[in-house]
Amino acid sequence: MPPRTLVGALRPLALAVSLLAPWPALAAPGGSFDIVAPFEIGGPDPSLSGFLFQRMQVGETLLDVDREGRPQPGLATSWSVSADGLVWTLPIREGVRFHDGTALTAENAAAALRFARAKPGVLERARIESVAAEGNSVVIRLAEPFAPLAALLAHASTIILAPASYGPDGTATKVLGTGPYRLTRLEAPQRMAVEAFDAYWGGKPAIRQATYLAAGRGETRTLMAESGDADLAFQLDPPSIARLKANGAVEVMKVPLPRVMQIKLNAGLPPFDTAEGRLALSESIQRAGLASALLRAPGTGATQLFPPSVEAWHDPDLAPLATDPERARARFEALGWAPGADGILAKDGKPLRLKLLTYADRPELPLIATALQDQFRQVGLDVEVSVTNSSSIPAGHQDGTLQLALAARNYSLVPDPFVTLLGDFRDGGSDWGSMNWNDPAFHAATKALLASTDPAEQTRLRREIAAILQRDLPVVPVVWYEQTAAVTKAVEGAAIDPFERSFGLSKMAWKP
Amino acid sequence: MIARLGQRLLQALFVALAVGALTFALMRLLPGDMAYRIAAGRYGYDFVSAENAAAVRAELGLEGPVWSAFARWLWDIATLDLGRSLVSGEPVLAEIGHQLGASLTLALAAVALSLLLGPPLGMMAGRRAGGALDRALLVSAVVLRALPPFVLGLILVLVFALSLGWFPAAGHAGWANLVLPAATLALGLAAVSSRVARDATAEIVSAPFYAFARLKGLPEAQLFPRHGLRNVSVPVVTYLGVQLVMLIEGVVVVETLFAWPGIGHALVHAIVQRDVPMVQGTALAMGLIFVCLNALVDLANARLDPRARAAA
After folding, report:
1. Which of A395, B93, B122, B127 could be stapled to B194 by a disulfide with Cβ–Cβ 3.0 to 4.6 Å?
2. How close A210 comes to chain B (CA, Å)?
């Protein structure tokens, strides 16, 4: 508490100033719905901040996904793929208007996709030859089949904006979308405001006005939710969750995400050059303890790469990743690593000393890394934790010096995790995925899945891929992430989108 | 006076040059690959890959020799061309313009509030040195100045936003949003200016000329305004110039805590994202503001203190 004299001195002044302004904390229900989240607004272009315009439901994509990640119609009413898998035809929805009043046509949808293709983004994952308007449809021609293209067309960097949005070089300077909300104010990097768009093709949303504020500090977001300045506070830190749960005016929501904290390891480095060695590393990790004690999220210890919420890729029949330091030691000894006098495993007189890279952009990573250091020490691994810049992980991968790294990987960069899997575990590995690991059976299965159109066959192949990753552990999953948000109890219909594509504005309504 | 302003102008030039050179060198010395950081700032961490970083490196010419980049930057300063943000692609001048306004509003509100609080309380305490108010003020000034702005800000939010519900906790939707961040900065400033005012007052009220003024029969109500106020205000205003350093340091923290879109906040983000033109632009703007404010302090002092004019 500030000393009394100052509080006393402040009071008249505070009153005077507050008379000039409305009372945001006491705003009547039915007004603007205020969202606060940590993500800053980069600028109007979809390649920079498309995900925010998508979450605020200003921009829409050709295709959409449901809560299970299955493709759904969006601005295109359907999609069909030619028998050879090379030509995708997407008929455009009729009667859709952009926020400036112009009509959506196949031609301007194709143009928007061509602009998106010219910038770094997900479309480069598929080998697209051309995007063109043919009649009332957008037609995409590929050089080779790419079954998850539907997921790319649902990604935020491919939102379709009106022709007037783009400058001469193809970079968007305005955000004229087709969504249920229209942008009324954009102040990068922190603020935007939207209002309901009455000519929306999908009906009028109940909440008429909303604002978005980027606040980087978790404390700020929590306090805003508590004081009523924010109606939805996104991404809460563990200590704040307990505090907000005690607050009668807000509800804390939690949803598991397809984001995994995992150990990337150099599979060219003994003892991790064998599946046995990688398994031993996995068995020395006490996941349940990390999840409940450090992250305060019991039940999020990763028993396999994907959490149960990613139904297509989570296999409940898979034997869970076990914790067994005794067996881990035995496995290392079987590989020729015996503990020395100091308890550190050694082979041919060389002790097993490793460096684990991690970064502080996500504050929980260094915390977990130091706990892992201790857990590894118990089985005889001497691990030095190096908290560096996140770029040192890709850099270490590129120059081959990386030994171990702890990182958070988002497998729903596009709604279908397969696209990220394909990149991360490709032959030779990749920046955030496997390193020096190759499994012909894995590559054969991914190739077959890329070309497959039969749902039963796709399920079988996904299970096969998940089983290979579980058996061979090219990366070692540690914990699954949860998304948390606090929402005011003055609204109904709030939910967290597990694919982080929407704040759910149009589905909410103020309670009467 | 003209000579003094000329001096300040020279100082501004020197600050611009030093800030330019220092930020350039420091940004190059920071660990981590610049191209990766810029790519992360642009496209988000999840999309950072060696290919994206390579594309950024090629696009921005980060491969080139350091000296040519430095020479280019100096030339840009000389021609007042701050370039474009590496992350958003917007002109740096436009971005700073938006953020500078917000920062200046915050800083001016903080200074005004601190002047309303600190010096009057300090003068009251100084006229009865050693009294109850003086001792209470000493304790509160020490506590307030010792608290980091981050903690002080949190306390204010807890008291005035959560418990009392008077002001919004954070954001920048209206005037009400300005109160808590400005008060956070103002309390720290007032803690020091109240002590300066108190000491100056205590010294003056015990000075022989003051005793003489009282002896000649001036009533107390006229005595201090006539013979004390101007004398006290000289050290207070001078000290304000020194305190501006604290204001600039505080702005960075306070803006982040209160989600206020200012230049300090922009500087932190630009550093994280290795957005060199933005870092240089914001650091330059802050350096020049510092010189400008000091020049204003000079002007104010010259008006307040006739002795300085006579000496010049």
Report:
1. B122
2. 12
